[in-house]
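Incident log, support desk, overnight shift.

02:14 A customer reports that sequence design results differ from what the structure should imply. Their input is reproduced verbatim below. On-call engineer (initials T.W.) acknowledged and began investigating.
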């Protein structure tokens, strides 16, 4: 575990829909990439080079700045055997670490239970978004979830009740079909009731916050600003979660994906600049992930569900660079004749974050021992 002065904090950013990793970290000198992506491929002269073979999307400039500072670990080829191409199942597997069966306990919920066994602080885990991510849901583990820090703090009792009911209904709609009814559903419903308990305490975060950083008016920037405000308020949150949607780029990928990665990259830079300004960045690590990659060839308008995606670990205590291996682009190595084959199991990356950053034993949480990387200095 990394030695730091303050308790380590983990910020999770979910890219919902299946980010096109090949167009985020681009094998720009490989002819297979350009041959198979006549529509969505990024021209070689537009890529921001990382080395002689890989480069960032041209709109990923702010993250490249952090990378050049040695603060970004690029984890290549993340996946698991028999990858699911279903959004729901794919994300479900990423949230519960259970590729073989439908599970009800999320990996971050289990982590929160280890960090705060008595459930003393309902703000140990905080989600910014509607509902509650499956990753944070564990029976008996309180997690706080709000969609907007400013508006929530200003709501009247009636509005808060309405939002509570809306959040619970979304929660049940999301997970009811997978887990059915009966005791399991009752557990999840109770977890949903716990979701909003800490919202009143969150109201003090905006009041104490000031910053010279001007975040963009995008959903991901607003969410990361909320994360920064709660972290800087010193409320004891150890796990933050938020997401950026829109990555299911079957169609119109050319206008859509560049805007998404631009918004993400700028928001990440603003977030870390904000924390640095307040001398509060050393204890924070961000993990940016998605449920799967996209297929190697484009479909004439976008890219379809694939495998072998990637993730980013970002922070002051990160030893930047490339980790694991970029999946082979040789056609005889393609998975199912059209996909990137994964080169490292996502559960090993969770294990890395749990053991090396948070100081929590990973085996019981991720369901075994998996190859880890060493991204922390």
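02:41 Re-run completed on a clean worker. Output:
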């Amino acid at each position: 575990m990394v030695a730091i002065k303050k308790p380590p904090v983990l910020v999770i950013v979910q890219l919902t829909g299946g980010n096109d990793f090949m167009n985020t970290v681009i094998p720009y000198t490989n002819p297979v990439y350009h041959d198979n992506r006549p529509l969505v491929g990024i021209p070689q002269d537009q890529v921001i080079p990382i080395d002689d073979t890989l480069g960032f999307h041209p709109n990923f400039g702010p993250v490249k700045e952090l990378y050049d500072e040695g603060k970004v670990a690029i984890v290549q080829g993340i996946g698991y055997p028999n990858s699911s191409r279903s959004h729901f199942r794919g994300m479900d597997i990423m949230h519960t670490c259970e590729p073989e069966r439908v599970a009800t306990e999320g990996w971050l919920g289990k982590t929160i239970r280890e960090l705060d066994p008595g459930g003393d602080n309902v703000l140990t885990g905080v989600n910014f978004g509607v509902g509650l991510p499956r990753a944070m849901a564990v029976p008996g583990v309180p997690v706080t979830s709000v969609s907007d820090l400013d508006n929530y703090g200003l709501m009247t009792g009636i509005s808060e009740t309405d939002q509570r009911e809306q959040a619970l209904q979304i929660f049940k709609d999301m997970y009811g079909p997978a887990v059915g009814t009966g005791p399991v559903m009752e557990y999840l419903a109770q977890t949903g009731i716990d979701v909003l308990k800490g919202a009143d305490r969150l109201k003090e975060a905006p009041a104490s916050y000031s910053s010279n950083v001007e975040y963009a008016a995008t959903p991901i920037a607003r969410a990361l600003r909320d994360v920064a405000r709660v972290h800087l308020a010193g409320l004891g949150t150890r796990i933050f979660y938020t997401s950026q949607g829109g990555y299911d780029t079957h169609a119109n990928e050319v206008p859509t994906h560049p805007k998404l990665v631009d918004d993400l990259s700028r928001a990440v830079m603003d977030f870390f600049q904000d924390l640095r300004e307040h001398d509060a960045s050393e204890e924070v690590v961000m993990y940016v992930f998605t449920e799967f990659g996209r297929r190697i060839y484009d479909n004439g308008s976008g890219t379809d569900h694939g495998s072998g995606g990637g993730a980013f670990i970002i922070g002051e205590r990160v030893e930047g660079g490339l980790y694991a291996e970029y999946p082979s682009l040789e056609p005889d190595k393609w998975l199912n004749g059209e996909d990137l084959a994964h080169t490292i199991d996502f559960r090993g990356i969770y294990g890395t974050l749990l053991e090396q950053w948070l100081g929590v034993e990973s085996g019981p949480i991720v369901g075994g021992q998996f190859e880890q990387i060493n991204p922390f200095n």
